[in-house]
Prior knowledge:
Elements: E1 6-9, H1 21-29, E2 37-39, H2 49-67, E3 72-77, H3 80-90, E4 97-103, H4 118-123, H5 129-135, E5 145-150, E6 169-172, H6 185-197, E7 209-210
Parallel strand pairs: 1-2, 1-3, 3-4, 4-5, 5-6
Antiparallel strand pairs: 6-7
Amino acid sequence: MDLVPVLLVPGWGDHAPANLSPMRDRLVGAGWPESRVSALAFEDPVGSNEAHALEIARAVQILQSLTGEDRVDVVAHSMGGLAVRQYIQFEGGHENVRRAVFLGTPHRGTVAAILAWGEGGRQMAPGSEFLNRLNDGDGFPEQVEALALRTPVDLRVIPGSSAMLPGAWNVEVCCPTHNGLVDDERVFTEVRHFLLHGAEGVEGPDDSIPLRTDWSR
């Protein structure tokens, strides 16, 4: 059986595919055909997550068309995960995405956003209108399995608990940097197992936190 196609989504200010090539190379090395792993490059890397979500929608449609698959998996780094959530929660993406992985995504914002520019930077500020809307209501759709990975030495996501997503399998991996999350062997092991087997495939350390429903810790 063919492996489910994977769309890689970059973070704030990143210029894919270069920034995502380590993750792409690892997926291909693990058996995913090159034609089934696509890396997205946003037109405006610091633009709004709403605009990025529409670009994700187009990229998903293209990947579906090229592979003939009804659903794809998504692996997003940093702010790219917020755009993925916008797509899944408000743009009908829950019908097209099977599993979503968030690597160091500031789900409740980050105080480091004070140093970020562009609409995307403003939207990452804790308490922004965008984040309030994203985190209100019914939350992350149950139709999409989700894995949120964080590192305890993340200097881009502050507080670190913001990298946790209620309704997802939340795992802390020690100790890549924020950018190093896309090129860390232990992180990739978690990603690969999750893409292949869902939540049952997540190994994680002893303090993994599955299916949390609050923002504590």
